[in-house]
């Protein structure tokens, strides 16, 4: 299944110190053989959108971070998780992230046999921002969401990550199975969760029940670590001076569809980041480019992008502007083809007289070929 890679925080241009900043990643779990979690909603990490307020503590032990051993001036730059989306909801959450070094390799248990959360405070906070998730855009897809921050880390230590997700009200939720994070087996009991419809995990952490984690308090105590990609930098060698070659754009309309497509093409092997400025002035966060971008809303759009290659500085930012205009009829010529007819089907495969909601539009051409796209009307 196609994977969309969404980076939920802007990646700033890298500031170089006296030595080269080398970027690297550690994958916790098998990204090629992961499966979605389908059990109780209160056992989902890093979050579930079934309730308004969630918290999670994830313990990444030194053995999981062994690739950092021996490296100098290590800094954690972000965390990436993967989900599968089956909801049309528009979800807003205020997200806080707290990061701590630890020597612990498991969660403590008190004399009564109750598992204990780790204390955390504002001095451990590395990130806070309100995030809007347009789940309709990712409907039926796997995608990754990433949180970018910057904090020092000592190789050989464990990493404790606390994440808090808070809705503005308890109506902004989904069904428990509509939003499923990915896991791989074998990393058991390295996470604990908190779920509640009225109280934030931050408020719970200063209340009389903390640090107890029990089912009565809406907690999951034997949770697998979710599939996680940890991005970090370290210093080695001399400072690079050469910039990455800037990517280029290829934009086009296709198949008589009311829409516009933008392809971002690298000039050398590199990772490309992009953001979109929509006609109403809305600006997306920087995202890692993975697939051709499509646009259906009328008006002037702007796509900005830059690239980063290993051992080089980021490229210059480039921009591409275009206008999405309505299609005037099915006889319109696109890409050298003439449209013979258009048929519409819902997600269950039933034919409809016109597009309505999330629709599969099948276009037939006079040369006998067809094409199908997913549209929202």
Name a few traits of the molecule.
377 residues; mainly beta; seven-stranded mixed β-sheet; six-stranded antiparallel β-sheet; 1 helix; 47% strand; disordered N terminus
Summarize the structure.
With 377 residues, the chain is mostly beta strands. Helices cover 1% and strands 47% of the residues.
Layout of helices and strands, plus pairs?
Layout: E1 3-7, E2 21-28, E3 35-36, E4 53-60, E5 72-85, E6 90-102, E7 115-116, E8 125-134, E9 142-152, E10 158-166, E11 179-183, E12 191-196, H1 201-205, E13 212-213, E14 219-223, E15 228-235, E16 248-252, E17 260-265, E18 271-277, E19 287-288, E20 293-295, E21 299-308, E22 318-324, E23 333-334, E24 337-345, E25 351-352, E26 358-365, E27 370-376
Walk me through the structure.
The chain is built from one helix and 27 strands. It has one helix spanning 201-205; strands spanning 3-7, 21-28, 35-36, 53-60, 72-85, 90-102, 115-116, 125-134, 142-152, 158-166, 179-183, 191-196, 212-213, 219-223, 228-235, 248-252, 260-265, 271-277, 287-288, 293-295, 299-308, 318-324, 333-334, 337-345, 351-352, 358-365, 370-376. The strands form six sheets. Strands 1, 2, 3, 5, 9, 11 and 15 form a seven-stranded mixed sheet that branches. Residues 1-18 and 328-335 have low confidence and may be disordered.
Distance between the termini: 23 Å
Largest sheet: 7 strands, mixed
Radius of gyration: 23 Å
How many helices in DSSP terms? 1
**Strand share of the residues?**
over 45%
Poorly predicted sequence stretches spanning 5 or more consecutive residues: 1-18, 328-335
Give the overall shape, derived from the CA principal axes: globular
Mean of residue pLDDT? 83
Q: How helix-rich are the residues, as a percent range?
A: under 10%
- N-to-C order of helices and strands: EEEEEEEEEEEEHEEEEEEEEEEEEEEE
How does the helix and strand content classify structurally?
mainly beta
Quantity of strands, as a count: 27
């Amino acid at each position: 299944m196609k994977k969309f890679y969404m980076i939920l925080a802007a990646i700033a241009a890298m500031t170089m110190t006296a030595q080269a900043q080398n970027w690297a990643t550690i994958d916790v779990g098998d990204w090629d053989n992961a499966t979605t979690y389908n059990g109780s909603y209160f056992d989902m990490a890093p979050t579930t959108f079934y309730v308004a307020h969630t918290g999670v503590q994830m313990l990444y032990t030194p053995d999981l971070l062994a690739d950092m051993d021996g490296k100098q001036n290590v800094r954690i730059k972000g965390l990436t998780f993967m989900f599968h989306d089956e909801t049309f909801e528009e979800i807003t959450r205020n997200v806080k992230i707290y990061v701590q070094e630890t020597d612990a390799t498991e969660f403590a248990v008190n004399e009564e046999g109750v598992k204990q959360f780790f204390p955390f405070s504002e001095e451990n906070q590395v990130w806070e921002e309100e995030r809007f998730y347009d789940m309709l855009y990712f409907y039926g897809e796997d995608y990754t969401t990433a949180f970018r921050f910057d904090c020092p880390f000592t190789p050989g230590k464990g990493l404790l990550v606390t994440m808090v997700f808070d809705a503005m009200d308890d109506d902004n939720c989904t069904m428990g199975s509509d939003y499923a994070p990915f896991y791989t087996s074998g990393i058991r009991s390295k996470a604990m969760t908190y779920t509640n419809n009225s109280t934030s995990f931050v408020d719970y952490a200063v209340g009389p029940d903390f640090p107890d984690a029990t089912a009565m308090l809406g907690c999951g105590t034997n949770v697998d670590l979710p599939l996680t990609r940890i991005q970090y930098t370290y210093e080695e060698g001399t400072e690079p001076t050469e910039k990455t070659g800037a990517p280029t754009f290829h934009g086009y309309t296709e198949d008589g569809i009311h829409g516009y497509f933008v392809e971002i093409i690298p000039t050398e092997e590199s990772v490309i980041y992009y953001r979109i400025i929509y006609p109403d002035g809305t600006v997306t966060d920087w995202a890692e480019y993975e697939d051709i971008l499509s646009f259906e809303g009328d008006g002037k759009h702007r796509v900005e992008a830059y690239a980063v290659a290993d051992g080089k500085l980021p490229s210059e930012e480039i921009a591409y502007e275009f206008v999405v205009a309505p299609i005037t009829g099915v006889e319109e010529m696109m890409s050298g083809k003439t449209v013979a007819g258009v048929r519409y089907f819902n997600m269950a495969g039933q034919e409809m007289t016109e597009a309505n909601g999330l629709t599969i539009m099948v276009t037939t051409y006079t040369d006998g070929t067809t094409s199908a796209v997913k549209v929202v009307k």
